[in-house]
Amino acid sequence: MKKTIVFAFALLISGVTFAQHEGHDMSKMNMGIDPVLTAYYKVKNAMVASDAKTTAAEAKALSAALKKADKMVNADALKAADSIAKSSDIDTQRAQLGTLTAGVYAAVKMAKPGSPVYYDFCPMANGNKGGYWLSEKKEIANPYFGDMMLKCGKVKETL
């Protein structure tokens, strides 16, 4: 009988320890997404400004943040960030935004950051196929077209 009680107590303690460990991983995950989002927003905002040079520089910083986030964001997003960083043409950079956004969006959905993230959509982006991006603001500022069509789009989801 004593062995059963000791075993049950040990099992209970290990379960509590495991639950605390799992909670720790989630807070670590949230901390990991914030630097990624901050860097992503800088890339997006440089695209809104149609500034290819700043977009490339900010994409380089985003790439470093993605590497530190370690598998939280898929490899395709990292490849897209690297492609944006290597390009000096805003249209070529914008062509990678969808892939980059898809990877960061999936990570945001899992990590649930503290501040709102707006998932925006423009139906005219990518040759009228549509394109998504993430924003820190509710107001639309379209990175696919910049000043040409700054307000084209709408918020599809608030995360």
Summarize the structure.
The protein has 159 residues and is mainly alpha-helical. The chain contains six helices and three strands.
Structure, explained:
There is one protein chain. This protein has 159 residues and is mainly α. The protein has one domain (29-158). Helix content is 64%, strand content 9%. It has six helices and three strands, in the order H-H-H-H-H-E-H-E-E. A three-stranded antiparallel β-sheet has the order 2-1-3. Helix 3 (75-86) packs across helix 5. The longest helix has 47 residues, at 2-48. Mean pLDDT is 85; it is low at 3-30.
Largest sheet: 3 strands, antiparallel
Tally of discrete structural domains: 1
Total strands: 3
Q: Order of strands across the widest beta sheet?
A: 2-1-3
Secondary structure tally, helices:
6
Helix and strand sequence = HHHHHEHEE
Helix content: 55-70%
* Shape designation: globular
Specify the oligomeric state: single chain
Structural class category: mainly alpha
In terms of DSSP E residues, the strand content is 5-15%
C-alpha end-to-end distance: 51 Å
The overall average pLDDT, rounded, is 85
Give Rg in angstroms: 20 Å
Low-confidence stretches: 3-30
